[in-house]
Each structure stands twice: as structure tokens, then as C-alpha cells.
Design a protein that fits this description.
The chain has about 260 residues and is mainly alpha-helical. It has 15 helices and no strands. It starts with a helix and ends with a helix.
Length: about 260
């Protein structure tokens, strides 16, 4: 993969950890004792209130009640990861997995963390297990494709992106990833088509606008490329990503 494509991969993001926290009776009902249930319920309540540190403390108490509660380790690890505490997150994910849970979630969570830590080979192995437990999850496939792309496995990445799209045709991210792979292979027109499809499915997808601008440039559409960069900048500004906003505006200036 070229440096340009690697740089553009800043536009491929995996699902955030907050979407992988266990919720509802299915999780709580799996816990062993009343006090453990109470701690876990409070942890969930605090999590949904945005109090991650308080939620972590409640999960810690649940673990004290039942040291074999892999769900609590997994969910606490996901919260540590959200807070940027990779060391404690990894320790919790490792502990959860050591308890042999028949669950895709904990492997997905550890794979996500490994992706963030730039450990793609390890992430791919965990996504392999997550996919085995939940073969119909397009997000696992998309994330695994991202990591395959990062190590130059274009064929494997393309296969995963295509399967993710087949499983969830309205999911925007694999179209973006597939577009990058097609562009890497020199298939600019089809790459632009994939970026178009990503944007149709998610009009607020700033990264797809950024990636599409390079295909427009390659196809001689400088005006369209500038328009995509301006839209990208506007979207990043709206969510407070000012550094990425400035990058897009700098690219606009370079084209004027």
C-alpha cells in the first residue's frame, strides 16, 4: 500500500466501543448473584448517563462478587478503551477471553483495541474469532478488511468489504474501504462509484468526501474535487474535528 493510501486510511474508522457495551436483561440475567446484578445494573445506568469512571467502579464491584464474570471484564475493558486507558483495557479483554466466553463481542472489542494500537495482525486474528461466533456482523468484516488493507492484503480486504456490503447494503463504511482498494489498483472510475455509494448512504461521511476528491482530480474534475474538500471541511468543523478541517482547507488552497 502506498503512503498516500495509508494516509487516506485515516478515513476508515471502526465502530466505537460504546456500541459494544452489553445492555439489557440478556446481560444482567447471565450474572450469578443478586448483588452482582445490582452492581452490573448500576454500571449500565452510569454508562448511559455518560459516567464512565463510575460505571467502571460498579463493574469492578461486580467482578469482586464473581471473578469469573467475563461480561463485566469485557464491558469494563471497553470503557477503559473509551477513556484511552489501553493497558487496563487490554488486561480486561485478555482476562475475559481467558474465561473462554462463547461470545463474539469480547474478541471484537480486543480486535478494535489492537487496531487502534496499530497491531493489525493481532486484530485480524481476533476478528477471525469474532466472525466465527457471529458470521453475519458486517462491522467485524469491515474492521478486519481495514486491517488487512493496512498490511497490504488487498485481495483479502476486498473480499471482506464485499461480504460486509452483501450482509448490510446500507452500511456506508465498506463502500469507502472498497473504493480505496479499487483506487489502489488503479481503477479510478469504480473507486469514485464506491465513494458515491458511501456518501449516498451517509451524507455526513466526511472521510468519503475526502477520498472521493482524489478520484475526481484523477478524472480531471478539479472543480468537483474542490467542492468535495470544502464539504469535508464543513463536516469536520461541525463535529469539532478542527485539525482534519484545516487539512481539507489546506488541500483546497493547494488546488486554487
Amino acid at each position: 500500500m502506498t503512503n498516500t493510501s495509508k494516509a487516506k486510511l485515516f478515513g476508515i474508522t471502526a465502530i466505537i466501543f460504546s456500541q459494544m457495551i452489553s445492555v439489557g436483561p440478556a446481560c444482567i440475567g447471565a450474572l450469578a448473584t443478586n448483588s452482582e446484578i445490582d452492581y452490573a445494573q448500576r454500571a449500565m445506568d452510569l454508562y448511559h448517563q455518560g459516567d464512565l469512571e463510575g460505571s467502571i467502579e460498579e463493574f469492578t464491584q461486580a467482578i469482586k462478587q464473581n471473578p469469573n464474570n467475563w461480561r463485566a471484564y469485557s464491558d469494563r475493558g471497553a470503557e477503559f478503551a473509551q477513556l484511552g486507558n489501553a493497558e487496563d483495557a487490554m488486561a480486561d479483554f485478555n482476562k475475559a477471553i481467558s474465561l473462554n466466553p462463547p461470545s463474539a463481542k469480547v474478541y471484537f472489542n480486543r480486535g478494535k483495541l489492537e487496531s487502534d494500537l496499530l497491531l493489525p495482525e493481532s486484530a485480524i486474528r481476533d476478528y477471525d474469532v469474532a466472525h466465527k461466533y457471529n458470521p453475519h456482523d458486517p462491522v467485524t468484516l469491515n474492521n478486519r478488511a481495514n486491517d488487512k488493507a493496512s498490511i497490504g492484503d488487498v485481495k483479502g480486504a476486498v473480499a471482506d468489504y464485499k461480504l460486509a456490503i452483501k450482509l448490510s447494503p446500507e452500511y456506508a463504511e465498506p463502500y469507502n474501504g472498497l473504493g480505496l482498494m479499487l483506487e489502489e489498483q488503479g481503477n479510478t472510475k469504480d473507486a469514485e462509484l464506491m465513494f458515491n455509494k458511501a456518501i449516498v448512504r451517509d451524507p455526513g461521511y466526511a472521510k468519503a468526501y475526502y477520498n472521493r476528491h482524489t478520484t475526481k482530480l484523477a478524472l480531471g474534475d478539479k472543480k468537483g474535487a474542490i467542492a468535495d474538500l470544502k464539504q469535508c471541511a464543513s463536516l469536520y468543523e461541525s463535529i469539532g474535528q478542527l485539525e482534519l478541517c484545516d487539512q481539507c482547507l489546506d488541500d483546497v488552497k493547494a488546488l486554487l
